[in-house]
Amino acid sequence: MKVAIVTDSNSGITQKQGKEAGIYVIPMPFMMDGEMYYEDISLSQKEFYEKLASGADISTSQPSPGDVMDLWNDLLKEYEAIVHIPMSSGLSSSCQTAIMLAEDFEGKVYVVNNQRISVTQRQSVLDAKEMADQGISPQAIKEKLEETKMDSTIYITLDTLEYLKKGGRITPAAALLGSFLRIKPVLTIQGEKLDAFAKARTMKQAKAMMVAAIKKDMDERFKDPKGEKTHMAVVHSDSLEAALEFKRELEELFPETGEIYVDHLSLSVACHIGPGALAVACTKEIQL
């Protein structure tokens, strides 16, 4: 059975990478100062952070239902079925929209709700493509991805509280106090939401907290303390040099894990936390 794999740009998969891998990537839309932009189509990483720094009014949106259905209809001329992997349903309504739209496609579109974002979503997409190439049915791919949805973990430390304040996620007073005390919050994504995890005073302390949390998850949740069967990644928001340094530190701590992937944080998340953020993510390998 010929199965198409579809995702959105929250996965971090670029249009070029998608074409090379045979994966279809829907660009996420952003409204900036009243004008619509599309990630990796009319909006580059560089342009996004320039507009963010200039104080532009930025809001995230979801792909239009018409665009999603047009892509699915085009793909179904060539493929027998589609596995669609959107960003976490807890972070965007695009997943629920896709599930509703799929009802009109007579069982040919399987929408995966496995609550992933950024590099963990990317890994789900790569796993889905591998399963499809092995001839595994779209229903079985969907079930496997949803069954293993909690086999991933992300920890993020922020450089500034300004963007959490802008988004109404913390009060202006808390942001002011945090900035005054030079607090570096550590957040976590476990399934549906971006939640508070810890508070650090320096980036070094924040990284140590994230490493300790990752070690605990790999040991207790993934049962893989050495990281031999875990995909590890470092993600950043416009902070590549710091990300590469963190990667080197993690390679020394986890010498038996595979290549540590480095990527930009999804712009939909970066929009709410600002530049200078640094994250580590782990995803347990899927056992087929």
TrEMBL record:
Which keywords appear in this protein's UniProt record, sorted alphabetically? Answer: Lipid-binding
**What does UniProt give as the signal peptide span?**
none
Check the record and name the Pfam families matching this protein.
Answer: DegV
This protein's source sits in the domain of life called Bacteria
- Please give one Gene Ontology molecular function term for this protein: lipid binding
Check the record and name the InterPro entries matching this protein: DegV (IPR003797), DegV_C (IPR043168), DegV_domain_contain (IPR050270)
This chain's protein is named DegV family protein
What high-level taxonomic lineage is stated for the organism? Answer: Bacteria, Bacillati, Bacillota, Clostridia, Lachnospirales
